[in-house]
Amino acid sequence: MKKSSLIRDKEGWRTVSEEPKYKDKNVEVTMQTVYTPTRQDKPAQWTVCHRKAAVVIAPMTPEGKLILVQQERIPVRALLWEFPAGQIDEEDADDDQTILATAKREMQEETGYELAAGVEMIPLGYFFTSQGFTDEHNHLFLAKGVVPSKAGPSHDENEGITDCREFTLTEFHRMVSENEITNANTLSMYARLCARGLI
Amino acid sequence: MKKSSLIRDKEGWRTVSEEPKYKDKNVEVTMQTVYTPTRQDKPAQWTVCHRKAAVVIAPMTPEGKLILVQQERIPVRALLWEFPAGQIDEEDADDDQTILATAKREMQEETGYELAAGVEMIPLGYFFTSQGFTDEHNHLFLAKGVVPSKAGPSHDENEGITDCREFTLTEFHRMVSENEITNANTLSMYARLCARGLI
To answer: What angle do CA B165, B97, A191 make, to 5 degrees?
Structure first.
């Protein structure tokens, strides 16, 4: 897998070696030997699980409702309510246009909604899902003004999406508060939306 | 590694097999074959990276400031501002008292602060860091009322903590808004704190 330019040696960081440990289409595990800002005499050794970067989208209707999908998540054996999301499969996962196109496509495929005429995705930065373990990072977008698309949703059978609903902001705030939203994608989006006064 | 009782077969979920792929002290990768609620005829196959559960703590001073540590994070080659956090190493990682004890210890070790007399940790639920990839889940706590401990911080040399500071809520809101806080632990905590009206 190609590495993101976000994850690269810079001031104080120098990669000595990266030993492959396991690889399939979903994950690549390596043992890395790295000089870090505080470890300039003797490099650190660290297990890193490399994953593709992803996008997460908060689709908002003209009435101000947010759209979540319910998805079965095998690693945690549960159905979770989440914002639509998807990995960036293209080789050039750092390119802004590629990231944006992935966000639009994933939203349309998972929810059946698309941006209303004249509306663009609002970028809300990114976040690392588990910075001591993986280089995975997810780009956040607010889609402020979405409408049902003619095509409707087109679920990949591997995705296991079991529901898709509009939620009022009151419902959404309650779900975050009461531990009904339990995934970093949706909670991190909520954080950025709140901090920017967007919800 | 022992699995959490949070991650278990229940209505519609049935594990057929789990084939080991890679294991070290930090991660255990398996190929799982699982019947899911939508896949009752033919089980799904999925790569899962198993990780220990962790705790994340938001230490708040009596003046209402929040304490963050800056830590070097090898997988992402960056220094990140984060709430103190740590994995639950004990065998019984599901036990409430074990989780709470880990939260108190990690806060004290990483920041040098401890709970003020008569104050207890306020549990704020948990979250999954990357639910399509790993069973990792982190328990969130607000430590409302912390004071510098006599012992001070005691950093593990592998942690790479480079700074520890108090931030006003205004500063913290701005850092979340402007993509200076870029990790799921801290953003998910921010989400729960905001949704519950605690900051």
So the answer is: 45
